[in-house]
Amino acid sequence: MSTTARVTKADLVRQHLDAVIAAGLAPHEKLPTERELADEFSISRLTVRRALDQLEHEGVVYRVQGAGTFVSDKAITKSFELSSFSEDMRARGIVPGSLSMSAEVVGAGARIGYALGVSPADDVVHIRRVRTGDDAPMCIENSYLPERLVPGLVDRLGSDSLYGVLERDFSLRLERADQVIKVTVLEPELAAELQVPAFSPAFLVMRTAFDNRGRAVEYAESLYRGDRYSYELSVRRHGRHDDA
Amino acid sequence: MSTTARVTKADLVRQHLDAVIAAGLAPHEKLPTERELADEFSISRLTVRRALDQLEHEGVVYRVQGAGTFVSDKAITKSFELSSFSEDMRARGIVPGSLSMSAEVVGAGARIGYALGVSPADDVVHIRRVRTGDDAPMCIENSYLPERLVPGLVDRLGSDSLYGVLERDFSLRLERADQVIKVTVLEPELAAELQVPAFSPAFLVMRTAFDNRGRAVEYAESLYRGDRYSYELSVRRHGRHDDA
DNA sequence: AAGTGGTCTAGACCACCCG
DNA sequence: GGGTGGTCTAGACCACTTT
Fold it and tell me: What pLDDT does A80 receive?
């Protein structure tokens, strides 16, 4: 089904602890010690620690040196992830859809070329979509991808998700994205497409997505209607032992 | 000076690699192998991997199994971090300041009490500030903290940063925050405080910050003017070996 | 086939918290 | 002082990419 997805021992421990906590461990209750878990699963302590590292990273548990590992106080809103529009909507319990789509190959031009790190004269695939959530217009999205990385993409765009096509047909897996989020007000034409009053406030999101080799694969500018959409994200303190 | 801040061997390797990359390694250039670095520093490979884990996490390098570790393509907009307003502004090269501040102890009430996980009848410290960037109003911020966690806070609020006081006087270190970001338009009174036209678009940010034990320490509602402020963040694909 | 990163082991010592 | 998490070692085998 999914793509390789090797299950490690640390994964098994993490899932076990997820289940144990969900089954009824209250906030601030103590988990088994790392050495106990290592014995129980007949694995090394380091492997147990990798499982706990991830749970701590997600805010599910916290650790106190010399004392133990404990369940965090609050149920966590899932950490912010790179996700497609469809995944994002489903995670919110909204049914995603698409009103219209057009795709064509055009010259990159200065702005798009700069964002993707290609020459302004290079070809890019331009995809424009109006996305819906529960059948209401939600977002106008303009995506641009270097044609060189996705030859023939325009002919493969069915009703499938763009990210699905990228992974299946081009072995491109997006790993990271930089986003800049601004607020704006909608010009009458765009407001009409989103079925909101002219000059309504909206999010303007500029996203550059990169694959596992750090290559810019997609640059997208999206307008989300402000009355229906919100960003939810979880941030952490860094804690590098640096200076400056 | 700082708070303990033990320097690990992994930290030294990371700083070394940071410097090497900054000194002139181009995107997609190959770093030394993990085994070479382990020999060079006379440490174990696992320790080298911990340093590379962090650099990969920050988007500075990427790794390809069977091939090597490489410098990422783009200068990274630093991964999104929990930071105070002052830190945030300084990171953007803007001088932070404060126009006005008021602090008082009030009853939590339903909404604030719910956000902080305390009784609506409990006391909270309410801090209202108008924040400036390069001497222009940037943000109106209303913060609420459970009085029980920060007794006497109102008397200790000088010109110091709130987060600094929390750590120094109360040993509260904020580790994580959940944020919801919406767009809104500013009522005339608030617009006047931010020195923008009435009904200008703005960010409305609701943030709950937690300490290392997962206790809600601060709930804040902030209004950022939309013409001067933008969110910049970097997101990654998750890759939990889960399902559902 | 050789080399690389990914996972894992069975220990060790240290720093810290608690009874 | 005993137990806990934090760091580290010197190996090992596997999966993968490259030549």
Answer: 59
Q: Which strand C bases fall within 7 angstroms of a protein CB?
A: 2-12, 15-18
Q: What is the CA radius of gyration of chain B?
A: 22
Domains of chain A in sequence order:
9-71 (1.10.10.10), 85-225 (3.40.1410.10)
Q: pLDDT per residue over B11-45, tens digit each?
A: 999 999 999 998 889 888 999 999 999 999 999 99
Q: What is the mean pLDDT of residues B210-218?
A: 85
Lowest mean pLDDT segment, chosen from A10-14, A44-48, B83-87:
B83-87
Q: Which of the residue ranges A146-150, B6-10, B174-178 would you say has the lowest mean pLDDT?
A: B174-178
Report the C-alpha gap between A111 and A219 in whole angstroms. 10
Q: pTM here?
A: 0.82
Residues of B in contact with A77 (CB under 8 A): 178
* CA atoms lying within 13 Å on the CB side of residue A72: 23
Task: Pick A74's closest partner by Cβ from B64, B117, B237.
Answer: B117
- Rounded distance in angstroms from the CA atom of residue A49 to the C1' atom of nucleotide C16: 18
Residue-wise pLDDT tens digits, B107-118? 999 999 999 989
The whole-number Å distance from A147's CA to D19's C1' is 30
CA–CA gap between residue B68 and residue B175 (Å, rounded): 33
Could you tell me which chain B residue has the CA closest to the CA of A74?
B214
> A178: nearest CA in chain B?
B234
- Binary contact (B234, A28; C-beta < 8 A): no
